[in-house]
Amino acid sequence: MKIDKNENTEKSIVDIAKALGVSAATVSRALNDNPRISEATRKRVKEKAIELGYRHNSMASSLRNKKSKIIGLIVPRISMYFHAVFITALQNRLQNEGYSLMVCQSNDSVAVEQKLANTLYSSRVDALVVSLALYTENYAHFDGFINRGIPLIFYDRVPTKDYPAHIIQGDDYRGGVIAGNHLIEMGCSKIAYISGPLSCSIYRERTEGLKHVLKKAKVTLAKKWCFYQELTAENAWNSLRQIFAGDEVPEAIFASNDTTAVAAVEFAREQGIKIPQELKIIGYSNDPRASIISPPITTIDQHPDEMAHRVAYKLLHLLKDKNAREHAETNRKEIVPVTMVRRMTT
Amino acid sequence: MKIDKNENTEKSIVDIAKALGVSAATVSRALNDNPRISEATRKRVKEKAIELGYRHNSMASSLRNKKSKIIGLIVPRISMYFHAVFITALQNRLQNEGYSLMVCQSNDSVAVEQKLANTLYSSRVDALVVSLALYTENYAHFDGFINRGIPLIFYDRVPTKDYPAHIIQGDDYRGGVIAGNHLIEMGCSKIAYISGPLSCSIYRERTEGLKHVLKKAKVTLAKKWCFYQELTAENAWNSLRQIFAGDEVPEAIFASNDTTAVAAVEFAREQGIKIPQELKIIGYSNDPRASIISPPITTIDQHPDEMAHRVAYKLLHLLKDKNAREHAETNRKEIVPVTMVRRMTT
DNA sequence: TATTCATTGGTTGTCGTTACATCTAATTTA
DNA sequence: TAAATTAGATGTAACGACAACCAATGAATA
Known about the structure:
The structure is a homodimer of 346-residue chains.
Chain A: H1 13-20, H2 24-31, H3 39-52, H4 58-65, E1 70-75, H5 81-96, E2 100-105, H6 110-122, E3 127-130, H7 143-148, E4 152-155, E5 166-170, H8 172-185, E6 191-195, H9 201-216, E7 226-228, H10 233-243, E8 252-255, H11 258-271, E9 280-282, H12 288-292, E10 299-301, H13 304-320, H14 322-326, E11 333-336, E12 339-341
Parallel strand pairs in A: 1-2, 1-3, 3-4, 4-5, 5-11, 6-7, 6-8, 8-9
Antiparallel strand pairs in A: 10-12
Helix pairs in contact in A: 1-2, 1-3, 2-3, 5-13, 8-9, 10-11
Chain A binds a DNA duplex (30 and 30 nucleotides) through residues 10, 12-14, 22-29, 32, 36-38, 41, 56-66.
InterPro entries (chains A, B): HTH_LacI (IPR000843), LacI/GalR-like_sensor (IPR046335), Lambda_DNA-bd_dom_sf (IPR010982), Peripla_BP_I (IPR028082)
Keywords (chains A, B): DNA-binding, Transcription, Transcription regulation
Organism (chains A, B): Olivibacter domesticus (Pseudosphingobacterium domesticum)
């Protein structure tokens, strides 16, 4: 390949204009396919642009247009299957519309989340999409977006208090209901529950859904079998050991993510507990690991694709219609259905 | 929370300057902690900035400085465990230095990769980090970066032909050697090999490493048991069916990723083939799934953290030293060691 | 023939920040 | 005491693209 160090100087539309004896405005219009430019001129301009090695300067363009064409995204961790799928789907849609996605990870740290929000705010992203960190209970770091009318959409892990942003969440309440009902139908009345912290919308709602159906079925959830904590494998093992340390032992475990469900299966295997005969397990998220382990785990699918689809739709709508932003007092919340994927642990 | 729609107008440093009766230049310096500004003025400026709801305009700043403070990243898929870990590690390091990472996915499509490279080129990223798509054999879409002296680093899946960019790759040749030796030591002489396409550096080198040790051990790799294809679960199943359709059957399978290794374990389970007694399996990447399946799979760890560390180091070096870019004819290639994680499939 | 108007293009000014070159007053040095 | 230095602040000119407004041409219409 050829290296052309002479071309190293950046050319601007002014250089093209000079070379062609036209004005910079004409060049700008030609490159942007403005209809006010004749086909002939457009062609001349574009050819000269290539010849000179011109490249569009989006900094200048952004400054002038007051639009960065960048959407900020804050997720807890991209390594979570749900979010990885979501990101991919969202990115594909936005790319078609000429937007880039700035993907950031909070690592489930409130402090990092705050810092990222500020950075993205200063970076002048055209919109922000957020799935909150585990313990975020104050949303002041997003106020700037609200005040400036910059589209702000929360998805999956959304604010638990009233906050004037758009919200697209999974039907976590229903997820709790489905899981609870399923276990009841399987004849379980002694259920252990390993959940994420209740500061987080998704776990709070799943818990409510679960408790609702258990109450209806007159099944009580023993306090000693309930855990609300970060859902790591390590925490799961600790809780499982605690659960199975006593004389009485549960018939089922509802784990609020699949990492925990996987840990439960491994724990049972280690302890020689038969699944599903002696212990039923249901997870959440439909992570690929849930289907690979033996026995494969019954879990709740959150349909990240569908969620991304809805977020993208709403986002592009808000981005286009300045009005939509002002008058969106109603209809700010959408719920995406969940479905159970039944496998061999129940 | 309070919504202050009056504050909606964007303030610039000029507004701060006016409000304070100083010049815009002074405000700029004060906000950037330039030492040529008195402590008193600096404080006054910063307070007024907060009072007016000022936010830094990085578009204007970028235009002026000719630096976007954004690093482009192109990966095949963020859902691949190796890349997810790599991204997270890289991002954490760059964030500390004030850089943002623009993460893009090629979805293993050459066309998408080309489009992304062009977009990132026009977006004026300060540097580009790339892991190539499966079938990328031409690198012209990165020439712009080379010509302009913009730092360009390939990692993991790197160009197979000579290309004047920086390269940080895993020791895939050694990975092939290790896997091959391990299987030979286990007494296997009939080995099936499911690899990615040889257009891709990593698979090419693993293949060479494997062939080298097999030759040394006088073990031949049967053509009918060699596959070079996209490493999806579906392709894996097809190949496995083909492999086990004949009379003769292999003693071991070397799968060049863990998706394939997982498929092999599942296939063996379905066919009632005993692992590792009748069939040994070794994978590649140390994906979490490899440790969760039963039996857990022996695999090669590529140390994505370490690779990210090296990429970040080189990147920041190139970004700082303009000279480093010019005189980097030598030392453009680094190799990151791999290690085998032995589990129950061998 | 006079008037309209569509087509094509040019002129000017602006976006917000910051580097460079100055400038002023106070302080230090010879 | 005069000259030199310096701390602190200022003014101005880009950076590159593009929107808003304006101007010239020629064809179509009245």
